[in-house]
Design brief:
The structure holds two protein chains of two kinds.
Chain A (H helix, E strand, L loop, with lengths): L3 E4 L2 E5 L4 E7 L6 E7 L6 E7 L4 E4 L2 E6 L4 E6 L8 E9 L2 E4 L3 E6 L1
Parallel strand pairs in A: 2-11
Antiparallel strand pairs in A: 1-3, 3-8, 4-5, 4-9, 6-7, 7-8, 9-10, 9-11
Chain B lengths: L3 E3 L3 E4 L5 E7 L5 E8 L3 E8 L6 E2 L6 E7 L2 E6 L8 E8 L9 E2 L3 E5 L1
Parallel strand pairs in B: 2-11
Antiparallel strand pairs in B: 1-3, 3-8, 4-5, 4-9, 5-6, 7-8, 9-10, 9-11
Classes of the chains: A mainly beta, B mainly beta.
């Protein structure tokens, strides 16, 4: 089955700096790659996603890049703010079967 | 807005008990999922269902079963709870039909087995 690896497991940045989280996947048939943010006491919520026919997608301070050949994708958050502090999960999906990475705990220091 | 509701936020059960975790979604989604969340291990798929009465094993189905008698409801059953099943359990749903769309999550049920 699909195996998703996510790095780093923890990330601490100063407010205003950029944060990058990287994921790799194993199954070349995966074609949908969402990113989720989980705040304390809540379920994960989608923040951005990308499909395999697109190399990059941006939404305000958040961007995702996908390299299908290398089977890796990354989340980029610019101008980080304290409210960006949360756990972030990447996922890879094919035919609705979605598998997740281990998560990255991002801390943004004011 | 899609709403996925898990019946309990916190549960404490004894070893050997049969435990039912219930999940309901209100957006007519075809797919429903049960994940287990543990620190450092992320979200691991236990079971998913792509239609009523249909189920597929995920990565860690041992010790669990599921039931989907109605489209909106997906139950996770721990046949005989053990301490190593102490965890956060997350239910999710998605549109289905192999359209590969985002999953919507419930708030989670934190289960403690003593």
């Amino acid at each position: 089955g699909e195996n998703v690896e996510q790095h780093p497991s923890t990330l601490s940045v100063q407010e205003g700096d950029s944060a990058v989280i990287k994921c790799t996947y194993s199954d070349s048939a995966s074609n949908y790659f969402p990113w989720y943010k989980q705040e304390l006491g809540k379920g994960p919520q989608l923040i951005i996603d990308i499909r395999s026919n697109v190399g990059e997608k941006k939404d305000q301070r958040i961007a995702v890049t996908l390299n299908k050949t290398a089977k890796h994708f990354s989340l980029h958050i610019t101008e980080t703010q304290p409210e960006d502090s949360a756990v972030y999960f990447c996922a890879a999906s094919k035919f609705d079967d979605m598998r997740f990475g281990a998560g990255t705990r991002l801390t943004v220091k004011p | 807005d899609v709403k996925v509701t898990q019946s309990s936020r916190y549960l404490v059960k004894r070893t050997g008990e049969k435990v039912f975790l219930e999940c309901v979604q209100d957006m007519d989604h075809e797919n429903m999922f049960w994940y287990r969340q543990d620190p450092g291990l992320g979200l691991r798929l236990i079971y998913f269902s792509y239609d009523v009465k249909m189920k597929e094993k995920g990565d860690i189905p041992e010790g669990y079963s599921v039931s989907r008698e109605k489209k909106e409801r997906f139950s996770l059953i721990l046949e005989s709870a053990s301490t190593n099943q102490t965890s956060m359990y997350l239910c999710a749903s998605s549109l289905g039909g192999e359209r590969n769309t985002e999953a919507f999550f419930g708030q989670g049920t934190r289960l403690t087995v003593v």
